[in-house]
Amino acid sequence: MKKDGENNKQQSHSTDNSMATSPSSTPPGNHIAIPKRKMQPKNSPKKSPAFSPKFGSSPRSCSPSDRHAHPSRSLLEHDGFVQHKYDKFHARCLKDRKRTGPGNSQEMCTLYRFWSHFLRDNFNYRMYNEFKTIALEDAEANFRYGLECLFRFYSYGLERKIRRELLNDFQTLVLQDYKRNNIYGLEKFWAFLQYRKDKRKLEVQPVIASLLTEFSTIHDFREKEKVLKSPVLTLEIGRAHV
C-alpha cells in the first residue's frame, strides 16, 4: 500500500460485481443534506487534514484529467456543494460511462474521486450505495479504479468516524478482493487500523486479523505484490481454475 508517499514516515492524503443495473441520477426532491461547516477567515492559512499522516498507493488504473478545471473540484471546496451543479456533473459522468463502457470514461474517474473525498465528511447513504454499486460493476469488468477509490474512502472515512455498516462492508470487500489475488483493500484496511484516532476495540473478522499478521510495514505489502504478480504464481492460479 503506499498511502500517499512511500518514505518511512508518511504524507497526508492525496486527492484522490455485480449484476445490478446502473443507478439513475438524483431523484427530484431527494436532495443531499450537507452539514454546515464553520467559516474560516479569508486570509487564514489552509490546514491539512488533522488525520492520518498516511502513505500508500493511490488508485492506479485511470489517467488523471484536468482536475483544476473540473466541476468536481469546485464541488469539494468549502461551501462549494450546490445540488443542481452536482446533479448535472453526476448525469454527465454516468452518460459518458454508458457511452464508452466501464473503464473507458475519464468523466467517471472524476466522479469516483469526488465520491471518495466528499463522502468522508458528508456521508449520505444514497450516494454511498451508488458509489459502491457502480465500483463493483466496473471491478467485475476488470476495471479497478472505482473499487480502489472506494477502499480509500473506507480507510480515510472510517478514520474520521466509525460506522459499523461501513466497517462491515469494508471487511467484506477486502476479503472478496483478496480471494482474487489483490491486496489493495487489505493494505488500506491495515493503514486504517494503524492510524485511526479512535482506539476503541473493533470487531475485525478473524480471517482478516490472521492475514494482517504477515504485514508490519508498507514495504511488506510491496513485497507481497511482487509475489502475487510473479508469472509462476499467475500460471499456477490459472491452472487451478481450469
Offer a few descriptive terms.
mainly alpha; 10 helices; disordered C terminus
Mean pLDDT: 76
- Low-pLDDT stretches are 1-30, 35-55, 64-69, 233-242
What fraction of the residues are assigned to beta strands by DSSP?
A: under 5%
Strand segment tally: 0
Shape: globular
Please identify the structural class as seen in this structure: mainly alpha
Proportion of residues in helical segments: 40-55%
How large, in whole angstroms, is the Cα Rg? 18 Å
- Name the quaternary structure: single chain
Biggest sheet character = none
How many angstroms does the end-to-end distance come to?
31 Å
Number of helices: 10
H/E element string?
A: HHHHHHHHHH
Give a summary of the structure in a few sentences.
This protein has 242 residues and is mostly helical.
General description of the model:
The chain has 242 residues and is mainly alpha-helical. It has ten helices and no strands. Helix 3 packs parallel to helix 5 (145-160) and helix 5 runs parallel beside helix 7 (184-195). The chain is globular and about 45 Å long.
Secondary-structure topology with pairs:
Layout: H1 71-76, H2 83-100, H3 106-121, H4 125-140, H5 145-160, H6 164-179, H7 184-195, H8 206-212, H9 218-228, H10 231-240
Helix pairs in contact: 2-3, 3-4, 3-5, 4-5, 5-6, 5-7, 6-7
